[in-house]
Amino acid sequence: MRSIIPQTGPRLAVQREVNTTMLHLIFGGIHLDGRKEGTRRKPLADLDVESEQVILSLSEHGGAACVPVVAVGDIVAQGQPVAKNEQGVLVHASVSGTVQDIGQWPHPRGGTAQAVVIRNDGKHTLWPGCGQEIADWNSLTADQIIDRIRQAGIVGMGGGGYPTANKLETNRGQVDTLIVNAAESEPYVTADHRLLLERSEGVLVGLNLLCKAVGATDGVVAVESNKLNAAEVLERTAKRCGLPGRVCTVPSRYPLGAEKQVVKSVTGREISPDRAAVDEGCVVFNAATAFAVYEAVVKGLPLTHRVVTVTGGALVRPRNLWVPIGTPMNELVKAAGGFKEQPALILAGGPMMGVAQDDLAAPVTKSTNSLVCMLDWELGEKKEETVCIRCGRCVSVCPMHLMPLLVDKELKLGGDVRELRRLHTQDCMGCGCCTYVCPSHIPLVERMEQAQQLVKQADRKQVEVTP
Ligand code: SF4
Ligand code: SF4
Question: What does DSSP say about strands 53-57 and 112-120: parallel, antiparallel, or unpaired?
Fold first, then answer.
């Protein structure tokens, strides 16, 4: 394969040393049974049979929903923009074909959302506006990199969905450290792990492009300590290609996918609840996002495909699939051999923070990293809620330094909004660690969500009455 590394030109001023070290421990979190055996050795594979249609959701980005720029009956090419929003975020056709429908469609986050449905002609005709490769990517300016990222419609692929170009512009000149977070701490999910093993050069080039775009001088890929093979592959690739950047192993602990936790683990910098990573000079991107940046900037390809782990005890043949965005979930189930037993729960995302799916017509979005189809025994026994025994476990595992037991108590007393604010309920990131450890089986994460809703409603009312 031709190297994508320019042979001449300046390198970025990030550390050349490839350093695999374990650094700082995070506060809280839990050890989980990884359950990754089903797919961690499964290489990325295309769908055996392509989906006849793709459903491109127009509501998956942070900010306003996108508006279609095509009409029903239009012929579209792969990579052609089909919708955009006022912030300039684009959605591209992930296959070539005909626009079949524009309307409401089930969304993996629940409910429905507007989508552009394309009937796949199976020809993969590439849009003329994409596919222009840049051999010497080192010569690009920060503005040029950000512009190509924007044109490619890249958003945070770890779940956030925030437009990457906007994030780079907001953080530009304010950070010294850029972390590509490949700590995939959710059980079952191995999508990023396989990406690191099989597309390491692209991830490292993406890291360097992101560093240049945002002005960071230290580029780090954070890999969990239970994925040392990925760390070794990255090290070898970085040395072989002469790419700057560091590989840092972080403790295998959930929830390391969260931004504040990975910053603490890699740099030792603690981010207090009212501050963001940028306030401590750091910015974090997901590994899949870094790879998408490489594809966009170096190969000129918009974000039209992603890796999805399709797994769980209910499936015949769990796999890691490289699929067009918009592929319906039921096509993923087919590609994994179908159900050998009826699943008790199907989740988009991992079992800790994933969203239950009741309609498999919902499509893969830019931030869908997995489809987990679980049997009853995988869910564990559901036990009755009893009274809080004040053991303090929910406090000791909360990575956000919150006190879920007090929030639960406050809700039972009627839910005084001032008190809920004082308890910083809005800082809860819904990781579920508190529920997981509670010996009284109190659904604390649901209580936190309930409290957040109460605070949000009160805030809305306040805005309405303020002249
Ligand atoms: S973990 Fe459960 S029982 Fe223990 S203090 Fe928290 S809410 Fe109470
Ligand atoms: S769900 Fe919220 S309250 Fe519970 S441990 Fe996670 S961050 Fe803390």
Answer: antiparallel
Give distance in angstroms: CA of 431 to centre of ligand 2: 5
Q: Which residues pair with 54 in a beta bridge?
A: 118
CA angle 148, 150, 151 (to 5 degrees): 65
Q: Is the CB of 443 within 6 Å of ligand 2?
A: no
- pLDDT for position 465: 65
Helices (H) and strands (E) counted in the chain, each on its own, are 14, 18
Those residues whose C-beta lies under 8 Å from the C-beta of residue 453, and which sit 6 or more positions away, are none
Domain ranges of the chain: 21-44+157-297, 305-379, 393-465
Which class in CATH covers the domain with range 21-44+157-297?
A: alpha beta
The number of the ligand 1 atom at minimal distance from the alpha carbon of 389 is 3
| pLDDT 10s digits, 451-463 | 999 999 998 887 6
Contact (Cβ atoms closer than 8 angstroms) between residue 322 and residue 46: yes
State which ligand 1 atom lies nearest to the alpha carbon of 395. Answer: 6
Q: Mean pLDDT, to the nearest integer, of 430-453? A: 96
Looking at domain 305-379, which CATH architecture does it have? Answer: Roll (3.10)
